[in-house]
Amino acid sequence: MSLLTDIPLSAIQLYLTAPYPCSYLSNQEARSQVATPAHLITAPVYSELVQRGFRRSGTFTYRPHCEACQQCTPARLVVSEFEPSRSQRRSWNQHRDLSIQLHPLQDKPEYFDLYLQYQKDRHADGSMNDSDPEQYRSFLLQSHVDSLLVEFRQGDELRMVSVIDVLEDGLSAVYTFYETRIPHTSFGTFNVLWQVELCRKLNLPYLYLGYWIEDSRKMAYKAKFQPLQGLRDNHWQLINPTELKQK
Questions:
Q1: Distances from the Cα of 189 to the Cαs of 87, 112, 114, in angstroms?
Q2: For 143, which DSSP code?
Q3: Per-residue pLDDT averaged across 197-215, rounded?
Q4: For residue 5, what pLDDT is reported?
């Protein structure tokens, strides 16, 4: 039985936000459909919502709902069928000396410092370029579901932080930020590969990678991890590899 149908229809409601500037496509307005109330979105309910294309930002669970644009495609990697490419294997070998620790969501000043550097270098022109520590904590360090914070260190130096949600059928990559000023590194690729391995250890079939957007350069990395499924017409289906390779 659907977990959502176990909840009274009046308990989980969906509402539309006001339009706001799209973070991924220039000169576009976006709207989101938000699921409320947040305190009733437990880990099992959230797992089903993710299967229906939702994600979360802090305690807000949402999915894109734009009238004039349908480019945000929920995407997930089929873990059992994934085989790393040659360049991905190089990335894995290059960074396998990183020490990795899993924590509950927690705050450290060095996290925020790394986050600020990452935003400045990678998202200086975007809406996520925010130096407000409260916005950062609200976005990454608040959750009503099963969430982990993962530290990646090289010696004593913090190199990367990743926030992950644990679902009933997979892991959901919430957000990752990393050191951008060391040449010839590929921390982001290594992070996805590490999450794939964690899925395998936990016997979880999918790694949810957020939204794939056809015309967004920031989303291009997702095309490198295949087979990639997209939620289209309410069905998870393979995103055509030819379609991905064109991006």
A1: 9, 21, 18
A2: -
A3: 95
A4: 45
- CB-based contacts of 109: which residues, under 8 Å, 6+ apart? none
Q: Break the chain down into helix, strand, coil percent, rounded to 5.
A: 30, 30, 35
Domain ranges of the chain: 4-70
Asked if residue 92 lies in contact with residue 190, where contact means CB atoms within 8 angstroms, the answer is yes
Residue 9 contacts by C-beta under 8 Å, 6 or more apart in sequence?
none
Burial bucket for residue 179 (CB in 10 Å: 0-12, 13-18, 19+) = middle
Helix axes 86-95, 187-201, angle to 10 degrees: 90
Name the residue type at position 243. E
Q: HEC states along 38-69?
A: HHHCCHHHHHHHHHCCCEEECCEEEEECCCCC
CA dihedral (88, 53, 46, 195) in degrees, to 10, reads 0
User: What is the spatial distance between Cα 72 and Cα 231, in angstroms, rounded to a whole number?
Assistant: 10
Q: Name every residue whose Cβ is closer than 8 Å to that of residue 191 and which is 6 or more positions away in sequence.
A: 152, 160, 162, 176, 178
Q: What is the pTM of this model?
A: 0.91
Q: Report d(CA 165, CA 210) in Å as an integer.
A: 12
pLDDT at 27 over 90: no
